[in-house]
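can u pls check wat happens w/ magnesium ion
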Amino acid sequence: MTKIIAVLNHKGGVGKTTTAINLAAALQQKKKRVLLIDMDGQANLTESCGLSIEEERTVYGAMRGEYPLPLVRLENGLTLVPSCLDLSAAESELINEPGRELILKGLIAKALDTCKFDYILIDCPPSLGLLTLNALTASDYLVIPVQAQFLAMRGMAKITNVVGIVKERLNPELNIGGIVITQFDRRKTLNKSVSEIISESFCDKVFKTVIRDNVALAEAPIKGKNIFEYNKNCNGAKDYMSLAQEVLKLK
Ligand code: ADP
Ligand code: MG
């Protein structure tokens, strides 16, 4: 059975794309077949995988019904559905489409008829709009990256609220896989106390793995590489491998 995971937080810059690409790469190291879907009109994931933002076939055309999900096999063995800058327009273009929240789910089901994957990871845009709703409707789990910063907690109530509504109306299978604290710097006392608050508030929903602040994680995408291709011995690689081990245990 394919497990579908949306990497979600409506805040930008919290580590969604970094988590999507490197968690996918870590799961691949564990011999899992992994598909990445870039659902963000900024196409950061697409570029981080070494592709151009001007790919001919993208999730945008697929969402518009022009062709099936384009599965691009990368040299490193991962498969990617690219995005493009036009994708943001889909939010308004599809607004009158019947079943507009179910489009991605349908596309994934069709793709799985011919291709087998153990995990599908969806990189969400920094909003709770239609593209994110499509990701939530298609997913079994959410992974929520959170920065250990003051105010990080504020967004959590909004996320849990939307998840509750999606679960009730669109996708009863949806569950929070876990919150992952990212860009953590243990020298900063504020980082420390905020991560303690997050752990106390969401105890069983917080991954034990904390993703440390690690410059290699910011450098790798510039070279179009994931962290295991860029530097497999750095803290970033160790942390994402540890997160993958926890994700493998999700029931
Ligand atoms: P989002 O997708 O939520 O907008 P990104 O994954 O793009 O966030 O991360 C925002 C920025 O922070 C990027 O420049 C990324 O390279 C950097 N970054 C993310 N995680 C880390 C980390 N653990 N250590 C250092 N830099 C990080
Ligand atoms: Mg991103």
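Residues 154-169 form the longest helix (16 residues).
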